[in-house]
Amino acid sequence: MKKILIVDDNAAVLEALSLLLEIHGYQVVTASTPKEALQIVNYQAISLVLQDMNFSADTTSGEEGKTLFFALRELNPLLPIILITAWTELEHAVALVKAGAADYIPKPWDDVKLITTVNNLIALGEASATHQSVKQQSTLYDSAKQAARSVGLVYESAAMQRVVDMALQVAKSDVPVLITGPNGSGKEKIAELIQSQSPLRHAAFVKVNAGALPQELIEAELFGAEAGAFTSANKSRIGRFEAANGGTLFLDEIGTLPLSGQVKLLRVLQTGEFEKLGSVKTQHTNVRIISATNADLASDIANGHFREDLFYRLNVIEINVPPLSERGDDALALVQHFLPNREISLTGKQAITQYPWPGNVRELENACRRVDILHPHGPLNADAFGLPSSHSEDTVLVKAGSEPTEAEIQAALVRYNGVIAQVAKHVGLSRQALYRRLDKYKISYKS
Predict the structure, then answer these.
(1) Where would a tag sit more exposed on the chain, N or C end, judged by fewer CB atoms within 10 A?
(2) For 427-436, which contacts have Cβ atoms below 8 Å and span 24 or more sequence positions?
(3) What does the DSSP assignment read for 166-234?
(4) CATH number, domain 154-320, options 3.10.180.10, 3.40.109.10, 3.40.50.300, 3.50.30.20
(5) Which InterPro entries match (predicted)?
(6) pLDDT tens, position by position, 280-306
């Protein structure tokens, strides 16, 4: 089912257009501000946009609509956009059509003409999708998904797709990469993805978490140590740079590296040379560096805790992994990955996608482990995950984009004795939308 985004600050317009499009078989998402619209297009697969030209009270210039149009085009140059205009904004609308807008419709609109225009644009988009270049994009997308799955990276969001695309692009080179993002967001998985798709994928891949090592041992871990170099050094130790020679070294939590270690790391990056602790013999190494941090290195540089010259050596290319709170689609996909073949209720899905997951993927994975132990059988709701729900079981508002199944609708009819208003509220549909589903599934109900 094609998904259409309607952007208008007038609730009556949103309702009228939603009903019209739903009757004709389209899935509808609405936004009342340009910011909401851009977030939706950024994270959902939208086939067409209907957008107003003004969003602030007493504004009739059409400048807001113009700004939104170009912002949407920047996100997706191929996205068809129909402008909803008043006569005062007609000049802007015509100019935007010349700039690439699909069409414009005046207020009040003609339902037949609007649906005809939408149908034609959707059909045109489907026809274009068969073009070879789009097929190639689809192949690249599938290939990216397969590569990510090979290292255990699970995602569905557009935000994470962009991260994966960049990771695959930089994998082909040997330049240092700095991966930033909060703890547990998947930085290590991105590092594994880069290494797995690089020319060095069959060479050594050595990982070291600088944040998990005592400060006094970090340099010995990285560069090695001769026997007697420090109290517990009973024998010569090979460092991670030596072990990774010819391959890739992943330095996690790089922001915790002490300044003395930073000096040595900078030297290795500049010259490929280092000495073990307690040795005067210079060794040579050739490794690709991938580093990661959850710290604000710019602030650390300003505070004198991190060397600016090292930062620029490490940060040839930066890949930022967004927190799970900005990747709602990923949260549900990850739960289904960690708990395969388990049924999740509407309230459970809503809670999973709306909960901010401050601990990111690690927190979510731990929650799934608890659920698997404490609730090994039956459907899983918000309570099973120990998540807060903004709505009770009796008043579920389904997140835009989810669709109740026939079984869920029938269960709700039984639960509320066929009272349509209560059933509609429970499954997150308007009464008109619910009636259409009932007719579609040929379900009998009280009138």
Answers:
(1) C
(2) 427/346, 427/396, 427/398, 428/346, 428/396, 428/397, 428/398, 428/399, 428/402, 428/404, 429/398, 429/404, 430/19, 432/19, 432/22, 433/22, 434/409, 436/22, 436/23
(3) HHHHHHTS---EEEE--TTSSHHHHHHHHHHTSTTTTS-EEEEEGGGS-HHHHHHHHH-B-TTSSTT--
(4) 3.40.50.300
(5) AAA+_ATPase, AAA_lid_NorR, CheY-like_superfamily, Homeodomain-like_sf, HTH_Fis, P-loop_NTPase, Sig_transdc_resp-reg_receiver, Sigma_54_int
(6) 899 999 999 999 999 999 999 999 999
CB 315 within 8 A of CB 173: no
Q: H-helix or E-strand containing 143?
A: helix 132-150
User: Cα separations (Å) of 239 from 225, 252, 257, 315?
Assistant: 7, 16, 15, 23
Q: How far apart are CA 290 and CA 117, in angstroms?
A: 50
3-128 matches 154-320 in fold: yes
Asked whether 301 and 254 are in contact (CB, 8 A), the reply is no
Cα–Cα distance measured from residue 370 to residue 126, given in angstroms and rounded to the nearest whole number: 44
Q: What are the residue boundaries of the structural domains of the chain, listed by start?
A: 3-128, 154-320, 329-441
pLDDT of residue 212: 84
Q: Which residues of 410-428 are buried (b: 16+ CB within 10 A; e: fewer)?
A: bbbbeebeeebebbbbbbb
Angle between helical axes of 187-196 and 132-150 (0-180°, round to 10): 110
Q: What's the token pair of residue 425?
A: 């509220």
CA separation for the pair 99, 53 (Å, rounded): 15
Structure tokens at 434: 């619910």
Give pLDDT < 70 ranges for the chain.
Answer: 57-59, 87-89, 127-140, 229, 231-233, 388-402, 446-447
Q: What is the pTM of this model?
A: 0.59
